[in-house]
Amino acid sequence: MKALISITIWLSIIGLTILLFFVVLLVTIISFPFDRKRKLAHRQCYWWSRAVVALNPYWGLKVSGLENIDPDKTYVVVANHQSLADIVVLYGARMQFKWVAKESLFKVPFIGWSLSLTKHIKLKRGKTESIIKVYKEAIQWLRKDMSVLFFPEGTRSQTEQMNKFQSGAFKLAIKEKKLILPISIKGTGEAIPKGSWIFKTKVSAKLKVLPAISTESFKPADFASLRDIVWEKMSTNLE
């Protein structure tokens, strides 16, 4: 029975993701002359996220803290990272942003193509020139009033405890004087089966948007202090 349910879940996810790509492609073509930020295309991921969660009997998602998102403000968004399921879960925040995501994700059929169409930011890990390019691109988006989302741990954590944060997102927020918007994710570590394709464990994921943190009082040399403050707030929330 679990195998049959798992087959149905995977086929549903694949089907929804293929549909998402063609909807995003159509919306991109239609809105191209007047929506260069691809906001309308990005919004298509909202229904995709809801449908993927709703059609998986092993997944549940509770979203809170949306009142902390001001649609008229631009943020450097930072989220912890436990699983590929975080991509699905984070669209539950229903906010406009550009991901900073590893380049290999953009090569995955349909979902990666959708990320390219919606102009998210590609990162080649371990490549200094790519990191420089990422920050230049992130600055361009922030100056166009588009939020940018980072996973400051750099890679997925293996437990509920977060890895230490890298500094780039916090240097960027201070430089551009943008608010930091922390988003904590809990429970997605077991959302995708490891070493198997069969779903076995029921997962109740939680996404919580924490209050934004101003960077106005921070000088460029204070990035480590800002980084540690954000890490502490997010870590406390996850406990």
Molecular structure report:
The protein is of the alpha/beta class. The protein has a single domain (2-238), classed as 3-Layer(aba) Sandwich (Glycerol-3-phosphate (1)-acyltransferase). It has helices at 2-31, 39-54, 85-90, 103-106, 111-117, 128-143, 168-176, 223-238; strands at residues 59-64, 75-79, 98-102, 121-123, 148-150, 179-186, 203-209. Helix 1 packs antiparallel against helix 2 (39-54).
Sum this structure up briefly.
The protein has 239 residues and is α/β, with parallel strands linked by helices. It has helices spanning 2-31, 39-54, 85-90, 103-106, 111-117, 128-143, 168-176, 223-238; strands at residues 59-64, 75-79, 98-102, 121-123, 148-150, 179-186, 203-209.
Describe the main β-sheet briefly.
7 strands, mixed
What's the CATH topology name? Glycerol-3-phosphate (1)-acyltransferase
Mean pLDDT: 93
Distance between the termini: 35 Å
Point out poorly predicted stretches.
none
CATH class: Alpha Beta
- Examine the secondary-structure arrangement and name the CATH architecture: 3-Layer(aba) Sandwich
- Walk across the major sheet and give the strand order: 1-7-6-2-5-3-4
**Coarse structural class:** alpha/beta
Instruction: Give the count of structural domains.
Output: 1
H/I helix tally: 8
How many strand segments? 7
Q: What is the helix fraction of residues, given as a range?
A: 40-55%
Shape: globular
